[in-house]
Amino acid sequence: MNKLHATEQKQYFIPKHFGKVLLFLIIVLAICVFASLLFGSRTIGWTGLIDGLFHPDVQSHEASVIRQRIVRTIFSLLCGAALGVSGALMQAVTRNPIADPSILGVNTHIHQAKHINTPKMKKTLFFL
């Protein structure tokens, strides 16, 4: 057996371009965050963005729209991170690198819940 001694450390493989790819993905994420703040049903300019982010005393329409879009953007980032973590956990638990929700029966339960949500079922479940 090949055992590690107390003085030896286990070395992990890090791809050659890992830093460059990580930096690129962080820049793309920042661009997407700014795009989410600037574009919507009404496009906001850079001055409105700066006022909404850094000047809380400004009460313009653009600043209030930016403050509302911040909540939407943060929530979408958190939801995306949660979905990524849940997918990684599902792949780790099942030890299957191509695991999807159908492995655990998530699709089946959602399909059943869709049928429970019909008006006839609501009347039936009301009396239970």
From TrEMBL:
The annotated topology with respect to the bilayer is: Multi-pass membrane protein
Question: Pfam families from the entry?
Answer: FecCD
Q: Name one GO cellular component term.
A: plasma membrane
Report the InterPro entries cross-referenced here: ABC_BtuC-like, ABC_transptr_permease_BtuC
> At the top level of its lineage, which domain of life is listed?
Bacteria
Q: Which controlled-vocabulary keywords does the entry list?
A: Cell membrane, Membrane, Transmembrane, Transmembrane helix, Transport
The record's subcellular location field reads: Cell membrane
Matching Gene3D superfamilies, A to Z? ABC transporter involved in vitamin B12 uptake, BtuC
- This protein's major location comes to membrane
Q: What's the name of the protein?
A: Iron ABC transporter permease
The source organism is: Lysinibacillus macroides
